[in-house]
Amino acid sequence: MKTLAVIPARLASTRLPGKPLVSIAGVPLVVRVLRQMQRCLSVERIIVAADDERIAETVRKAGGECMLTPPELPSGGDRVAWVSERIPSEIVLNVQVDDPLVGHDMIDPLVAAFSNQDTQLALLAKRIDKTEEICSPDIVKIVFDQAGRALYFSRSPIPFERNSGAVFYKHIGPYCWRRDFLLEFFSWQQTPLEKAESLEMLRVLEKGHSIKCVPVERDTIEIDTPRDIEVLEKYLALNGDSVVR
Fold first, then answer.
1. Pairing relationship of beta strands 66-68 and 45-50 according to DSSP bridges
2. Adjacent-strand bridge partners of 215
3. Is the whole model's pTM more than 0.85, yes or no?
4. What is the rounded distance in angstroms from the CA atom of residue 149 to the CA atom of residue 230?
5. Inter-residue contact 10 to 16 (CB < 8 Å)
6. Tens digits of per-residue pLDDT, 97-144?
7. Quick one: DSSP state of residue 27?
8. What are the structural domains, with CATH classification, of the chain?
9. How much is the pLDDT for 15?
10. Element (H, E) at 80
């Protein structure tokens, strides 16, 4: 198998309890993400990595595959690595359960970046259109070189706009790893810049490895609060909802 997509799904959430199971226009959030991945031609197998049997039951009823991961795993990335250790593949996608608009137009170009054997990790870079996002610490900004290799990630505005005309990009959506590199990454200790910014991608850069940034035109709507649900349902009402219930 070449490409495995893993959707880490944790029931506990401070801002939105039971997040994977919340209903979005009548469809559980985790099922929405699953359906989006099923449309991706580059993905051969999809597994929801859950920490609760209620999530697993919902996924199985929708015809999906689920693995229950140890509850003590500290992050979604750790759950992805745990699944990847048990299911061999060449490439592993970490698809966030709070990102139901991530689709084939984003996933397939990410996987295509691995046709270059030097690519170990790839992620999406979206040009920032909303001025308020530039200074928001919740938005992870990226700068990258002319070959699309990441130079730095920050919660602060980068680049510093001493002269007008700067273009700002943010990281959105999934991570795509070469499996061996993913497993190696999770054996490393946290690094100083990673701790300072609370951004694990800086661990990759601090260790001297490259990250491929794949530009994307479309934005996503991440689900973290009840207000986000309202925004997404309004978006679906205006743009159509193709997810099968």
1. parallel
2. 125
3. yes
4. 36
5. no
6. 999 999 999 999 999 999 999 999 999 999 999 999 999 999 999 999
7. E
8. 3-222 (3.90.550.10)
9. 79
10. helix 76-86
